Amino acid sequence: MKIKTTIAAFVLAALTFAFTETASAQTKEKTVMVGGAPMYPSKNIIENAVNSRDHKTLIAAVKAAGLVETLQGKGPFTVFAPTDKAFAKLPKGTVEELVKPESKAMLTKILTYHVLAGNYSTKDVWDAVKAGKGKATMATIAGAPLTFWTKGDDLYVTDVKGTSAKVTIADVNQSNGVIHVIDTVLMP
């Protein structure tokens, strides 16, 4: 009985140490706050995004489109993540329609239009805009391009329909890429 108690105490101490070390390592990481939650560079896009209270609609859409596993993958990905307020700007009933199973193909196209293959910081995008004399175009994984431009200290992205979104939180580093929070949903 004493041996079992000693073993149990040892296992508990080891687990406590491991948890403390993990928590300690995460607190040492340079995090960015998004939606009231710290975004840890050691976690992947999904592991971080699910904690943002400003991205509940986006996470529900990613789940409905079946893209969770993809965005947990190796990447790297650059994600332009619309907030819940961005989704609320869409015509009434649009989100509800898009998350229906019969709309999965359209939802997937819209969501993948917010993703670039590769890891692009805002510095990378700014450099591309400068090199492009005020604009830069990059292909999304959906195939359609996004156009980037700047105004003052702000970075904007414009979809093929001419709708622009402002990057409101930039360079949220992830283990498999980077997230840039935007204030408008982009449409392919």
Automatic annotation (TrEMBL):
A GO term from the CC aspect: extracellular space
Pfam families linked to this entry: Fasciclin (PF02469)
FAS1 domain ranges (all copies): 42-186
SMART domains on file: FAS1 (SM00554)
Residues annotated as signal peptide: 1-25
Superkingdom of origin: Bacteria
Keyword field: Signal
Keyword Signal: yes
Record-given protein name: Uncaracterized surface protein containing fasciclin (FAS1) repeats
Source taxonomy: Bacteria, Pseudomonadati, Bacteroidota, Flavobacteriia, Flavobacteriales
